[in-house]
Amino acid sequence: MQVTNEEVDLSIPNMHSRDDEARAGQILRELPGVTGVRLVQRGAWISYHPETISHDKIGAALRHAGFRASTFQDSATGETHNSSV
User: What distance in Å separates the CA atoms of residue 41 and residue 32, rounded to the nearest whole number?
Assistant: First the structure.
């Protein structure tokens, strides 16, 4: 069975410095099921296996580290919005 990746664009408005970016990137890359992370200014694009990890778990990991994260675009639906994950 082939595992299909999904992607999500997250807005992380309180990621202000390179240190914040490095810490957020490390947190995201260490999550089981996350297969790719690209950091952008105050945000991140994440590729993941939905069978292994969910938006909620990704958001919880960032919140636990002190970041605010909200979904900017969901690849499954293509919807753009600004809801908390």
Answer: 24
Local mean pLDDT, 10-residue blocks, the chain (85 residues): 80 93 96 95 92 89 91 58 47
Distance between CA atoms of residues 82 and 27, nearest Å: 21
Distances (CA, A) of 81 to 10, 44, 63: 10, 15, 19
Number of folded domains in the chain?
1
Asked if the structure places residue 83 within a domain, the reply is no
pLDDT recorded at residue 4: 85
Domain that holds residue 40: 6-78
